[in-house]
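User: Could you check the structure of this?
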Amino acid sequence: MHGYVDLHLHSTYSDGVFAPAVLIDKAAALGLKAIAIADHDTVDGVDEALEYGKSAGVEVLPAIEFSVEFGNYHDVHLLGYLMDHRDAGLKEILGTFRERRETRVDAIVERINEKLAREGRQPISAQEAASLAEGSIGRPHIAQILLQRGYASDMQDAFKSYLIPCNVPKQYFAIDEAIATVRRLGGVAILAHPVSISKEREVLESVVSRLQGLGLDGVEAFNNICSDQESAFLRSLAARHGMIWTGGSDFHGIEEGIEIGSGRGSMVVPYDCVTELKRIQAGR
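Assistant: Sure, the predicted structure tokens are below.
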């Protein structure tokens, strides 16, 4: 995989199970030239990753994945690359959002404990899960506590048995505000796994066109939920609209069959994507 990249990974700073250094070591072992650790709604792990990447010989791009909503579309994800992640205003915005996320975790744990009580099992606590999170707490941290208690056999079982049935909806950023924030901080805004919005091509093209009007720079053409045909469509869509495309595995460490650098096996993302991101960033 020499010369290739993976621009969508998650670490323990949000809902991944591996620390940034472990992800970087895995990328180095695979021969990846560059990666981006795009944690959900936090940049707390970026500096650590940048520093470790230098020693490991892997280029690390500053990144974030915003949880956003657009019209009637909820749980849309926006990737921000190469932005000023140390900006005080950004930290304040993300701090407020983190408080909301922690409130959601408390509510999920409360629901899980109700289910555990019905099963005759002892409760868990949000504080236990928070102790595992290096940054923003997420559902995988709760799942790890369920595993430690022996309430689930693996991560998939924890989600199927507890996290999904006891879920509480997220709160989201407005996508226009998220795009504006990325651009204000000199970054590049990319729509993550677009087919999660719709697999209908006319609908998807309309959404991307509207988002381009708000300042969207490109689409994630390679990801773990689209087929080879859909990836080809997303690349052609980007070309038609004069946008760029990127790709990443969206690796968290809990999904069966998803690997860093190759996704479900067929993903190949060239370093040219990094070059294009830098080209746009240089013009900001």
